[in-house]
Amino acid sequence: MTFQDLILKLSAFWASHGCLVQQPLDLEVGAGTSHPETLFRVLGPQPWSVAYVQPSRRPDDGRFGQNPNRLFKHHQFQVILKPSPDEVQTRYLESLESCGINPRQHDIRFEEDNWESPTLGAWGIGWQVMLDGLEITQFTYFQQVGGIDLSPISCEITYGLERIAMFLQKVDNVYDLEWGGGVKYGEVRLEEEIEQSKYAFGQVRMPPAEFAALHRDLFETHYGFTGTLLDSGLIWPALEQCLKCSHLFNILDSSGSIGVSERTAYILRVRQLAVRIARARTETRPAAAESA
Amino acid sequence: MDRELLVEIGCEEMPASWLPGLTAQLAERLGAVLAGVRLETGAPIETFSTPRRLTARVASLAERQEDHEEFVLGPPVSAAFKPDGQPTPAASGFARKHGLDVGALERTRTPKGEYLACRLQHRGRATVDVLGDVMTALLRQLSFPKQMRWDAYLDDGRGALPFGRPIRWLVLMYGGRVVPFVIRRSEGAQGPRVQDVRSGSSTYGHRFLTTSGRAGRVIRFKTFDEYRTKLIENFVILEREERDDRIRRQLEGHARRLGGRVGHQVGGESSLLREVPDLVEYPSVVAGHFAAEFLKLPEEVLTTTMVHHQHFFPVVDDAGRLKPAFLAVVNMEVEKPEVIARNAERVLAARLRDAQFFWEADRRVPLASRVEELSTILFHKGLGDYRAKAERVAALSRWIAAEALGQPGMAAAAEEAGRLVKADLATGMVRELTELQGTMGGVYAREEGLPEAVWRAVYHHYLPVGVEADAPPTCQQLGAGAVTWAAVSLADKIDSVVGMLSAGERPTGSRDPLGIRRQAQGIVRLLADLDTLTGLDARPPLASMVAEARRLLQLSSLDADPGARRVLEGFLIERVRFLMSSRGLEYEEVQAATSDEGWCLSVNVADLVARAEAVREVKTRPEFQGLAEVFRRAKNIVEREAGGPLQPAWRANVERLAEPAEHLLRATLDRVGRDAETAMVAGQPLRALTAFATLRPAVERFFADVRVVVDDAALKTARLSLLAELRDRVLQVADISILAPKAE
């Protein structure tokens, strides 16, 4: 099964179980959770089921294309089910079968792994799903987002697409994966990985101090503008600006541009924005539903 | 007729580490709830668990509640009747409420006077009618290390029912019949795909395996025996012991076939071995291999990667050396072991390749130069970064080695090790395998050829963790690093505990995210066993080490900060008491030796333990029981008449003592006091207590012949002074008044 077949299979599976198939957020984010299709939809009472791929950037994991398992950017397949159906684990296991994983020939286990995002003021209870010792999915019952208790509870299923594809194709190097039609993952992504890693670790023709200053300025610009957008009641654009801040912080961190006490301060500032955005979204939502 | 009660709470996978505790809790809570509703059990409560179920069975439970008489107190008699003898509204109201005439009420005497009262007869209800309330109480009372909301509530008026994981089915059966019970789902969630959980008489087996029919289908049963048998047919082994046996047998069999034995165990036990039976419903073992080239990695790295990250068991040869193989416990009856083995091997190889990369990259830079990088890692927001901590630990280690342990020759090595203990936090390996912090620094220091006294101190500095006398490290593991290890381990922990407490951090309940309690326990454990671990006979009190730590942290002295002293003393004494009771000392022995919380700073911990042990030794001797009693009497009189320690001063107005009984006590105190002092200096509290036991006849005669509280103030002081000296001298060993018989 090629990388793109895997995406198609999962999309078809979840579409057949009542999910809208959405598209990735067209911004740089660290995980599918940041997408408003998760972050906003899990708030409030409205039922929502959605599935989408999210390219996810983790600057710190950039390895210049040299590590067979680690990537600056990997792909998550994200499913949100709200409310979480009683049969959710069975459905999930069926989704694996639909991708050609026969659970009777493998060892599939749900092992405790709770999830917490300090920058989003969010946490949940759940598992990492292990397939013959390989972590392939993060399975979480969201409890809080933006510091707000959720009701009803949503279930988030996050598949690690590269890992599952490597498992299915029995390759040991991610760049050897077949993306589709005989084209390798390396052909599609290696160049980007090398360049993005260089950028993430500050290997730019620019003195480190300037590199740091530029990113701090960018952070401040987006940070300030998020506030303006929030004050204007524009919550979706505000989230986008907030996510920019989050990514810029990750770059500042991976490039070693910030000290330790500063690091905590940055996390706290992003968190405050996220909490404000989540609050604003919860407060305006009932009115929006009424006028609809 | 008594019948069988069967409860099964079917859950999504519960964390393995919770199951042993939950199984015990289930038995305990169910027992208490049944007793609370007066349902008599004719058999012990048996409880079981797998990741997907908590099961309780009572083979024989009464069919009805026991009948019960309730005694209800009404108004006081004084307010119950008017002057003409007619009942007041209070009295008639009380009688009416319970359906009785005032004349039928009885009178009862209470400490507050005479009251009207009545006896109500309650006929026991049928068990099936009570079990709903039992189930409610049980679900409410089970507690979890972390609980979640899952859109569920109960009809008991208390709203949401948070639980460890979502409940997917529920068995509640009495005498083979279902007792109706419902867990409701909240309005916002309920719908075709989210339904109430209703009690039934069916369960589910293994998710993927069955001997007949479709895996995961509903299984019906009537009795516990049938339940257990059908679960086995559906690949669920209900008894943890059976799963454990099966795992051990298969592990040993595979290890033998690989020409070795199961590694990473101490005396046939390991934390992994304790965990795996709770991760699976039907365990099997699969063997795999890794490339021999990875054996060049340090054993610590290989073991941590296998055990902590993959839950694999290492395999070792007869000499204890790792073989390039591992054993994985899986939750399957394996059809094709080679398929699972190949996949597991690929995951492990990927991790080992990463480790190999860090192993090579990290060693390009000497460990000492990493200390600089520690300025980018925060220790605590109130206490600065790890760079600053490294300097403090270095200075404190030097001081402890030279001054507290009396080993100036080791001071330089202790200082070097102290500076290096946190350096590995800046290495790639520790960032990846955090469990190896400390250990990895020791390995890198060893690779660089640093002296044993340095690398071993770094390697083991997180230890000790357990309080048991045989918890690691052993004297043998410490080798030439024993003294430096003691200095560095103490310095690191004292700096953390003193610093964190001063920064306002406190562990609460079972939560200790910063490890303050654990580290304080390490300090206490190390000091309690200092001689066996290091061969040193030093008995340093904590006070001077804490003072030095506070100086390095730029905190004021404890004398200038009584609040901080109280917090620290209260915190440390708890750890001392915990260590004592874990080592089998009983409550009163512990209390006698630790009655003064300040001692945990001023007296060496080993000495405190020795005192408690001495109390245990003497407390059953008859002469000692008499002593405890007269001691308590002396202590009470002095405290009532004079007050705190050394009040009045010893030998105050000694010239006024004239009675023979006074002279006898004075002379006996002189002799016994000397003996006890010598014994305490030699660290022999047992000898001191034995000496005190000879005081008894003199004290008894004193109490018989002499009145202490007399009008002549000077004489009274002289007599009180004798008793005060007795009290003070004995208290320096232990407060034995707690051993005196309770009745005054």
Global mean pLDDT of chain A: 93
- Beta-strand residue fraction of chain A: 15-25%
CATH class of the largest domain in chain A: Alpha Beta
Euclidean distance between termini CA atoms of chain B: 50 Å
Gross morphology of chain B is: flat
End-to-end C-alpha gap of chain A? 43 Å
Would you identify the CATH architecture of the largest domain in chain A? 2-Layer Sandwich
Poorly predicted segments of chain A = 287-292
Total number of strands of chain A:
11
Cα gyration radius of chain A (Å): 20 Å
CATH superfamily of the largest domain in chain A: Bira Bifunctional Protein, Domain 2
Bin the strand percentage of chain B.
5-15%
- Overall SS class of chain A: alpha+beta
Q: What portion of residues of chain A is helical?
A: 40-55%
Question: What report would you give on this structure?
Answer:
In chain A, strands 1, 2, 3, 4, 5, 6, 7, 8 and 9 form a nine-stranded mixed beta sheet that branches. Chain A folds into two domains: 198 residues, Bira Bifunctional Protein, Domain 2 (BirA Bifunctional Protein, domain 2, 2-Layer Sandwich); 84 residues, Class II aaRS and biotin synthetases, domain 2 (Methane Monooxygenase Hydroxylase, Chain G, domain 1, Up-down Bundle), CATH 1.20.58.180. Chain A is globular and about 55 Å long. The C terminus of chain A is likely disordered. With 292 residues, chain A is an alpha+beta fold. The longest helix of chain A is centred in the C-terminal third of the chain and has 32 residues. In chain A, helix 6 packs antiparallel against helix 7, helix 6 packs parallel to helix 8 and helix 7 runs antiparallel to helix 8. Chain B is α+β, with helices and mostly antiparallel strands and 744 residues long. Chain B has 28 helices and 19 strands. In chain B, the strands form five sheets. In chain B, strands 1, 2, 3, 7, 8, 9, 10 and 11 form an eight-stranded mixed beta sheet that branches. In chain B, strand 8 and strand 9 form a beta hairpin. In chain B, helix 17 packs across helix 20. The interface between A and B is large, with 46 and 56 residues.
